Model the fold of this input.
Amino acid sequence: AALEATGYILANLNNILEVDEQHPERLKKLQDFCETWLARAWRRELTVEERKSYIEQQFAATDPPEAAKRVLILGLKSPQFLYRDIQPQNTPFARAEQLAWALWDSLPDQSLRDAAAKNELQTPEQIRDQIERMLRDTRAVFKLKSFLLAWLKADQIQDLAKDQTKFPGFDEALIADLRTSLELQLEDFLRSGGDVLATADVRDLFRQRQIYLNGRLAKFYGIDAPADAPFAKYELNPNERAGVLTHPYLMTSFAHNATTSPIHRGVFLARGILGMSLRPPPEAVAPLAPDLHPDLTTRQRVALQTKANVCMSCHGIINPLGFALEQFDAVGRFRTEENGQPIDASGSYLTRDGQLVKVNNARELADFLLSSSEAQEAFCTQLFHHLIQQPVRAYGSQSAPELVTTLVEGNHQLKPLIIAILLKSTLAPPPNFADTP
Done:
């Protein structure tokens, strides 16, 4: 990669330097370019020793094109380029780098570099101004969408093929449309209010009443729309759906080939949404085949298979959560019965403070999650880790509760939470991982 990038730069030097080989200032422009390029690659200004070693000595040792090639390759293969956080922490350039990685997964832009050079990343107000500016960049939207997909355990493309005898028409094209529908819904949330995060309320993720469908999806999910209709928002029954929590893509992901999977859905809710730690099962167990118990519903089969005490230590948490989503079949369509029996979507959850919360369907489950301090903390800590790539506890035992307070007192707006995360991580001293629980 270093050789290919260097080859491209050298092949386009005239355009980059804006002078030809005969120009009297070409050598100086080439040296200046190498210095600027190296500083951008390393995300900071060069020291006097680095400038002498990486640039002056190379140009003194050989002809200009070869010297430039050496500078570029040395720069790209240097640990200063390949590794993050290798430079001293709590410097203006380190803060600029951290902000750029957190929101853009990229290098600092000219505005960040200028602010660092002028020592204008010192106060919370200065950093906040940069964050506000950076959030308006499209790269921030994609970074935050990647977090939401990870939070929903939809960041990896899965094989969602289903039994065609039970779900005819659920083909690859429809699966691709479902993925697009989910991503459009998340982008719409992030751009709510007409600007990035202008009015993005985290609770709306579970309160949305509309979903993006095109003609093909609308027909499959029973919505009246032209067959060739492009993606647009369609209203769904608010008593049935609960925003992205019941999006057909997720319901399809957490299901088997021919049946639902309360266990997969329950694990998703327990680990991903509520932030619980679950032990892995002691051994792989295949689900009971529906053909062996044709008169039982999926809920009844799961209850039968996991009734042993050794199973219920975890399935006592998992099953009641997953059962609350049983009104959605293996492709995310709403249903009221299975095998001629009415769907029982009642569920429950025992909170950390000992309160038993009972729900009767997905909508009631979503209402509980919207006010759950456990779900709020899980969301905050996962967002912190996704942006900063470090555990929140490394910044102090009270960091997670403080972020939850920021979320709740900020009327659940996503933007103040992001700003609080970035201020904490950029202004705090370097985390001491040896002291992290």
Q: What stands out?
A: The chain has 21 helices and six strands.
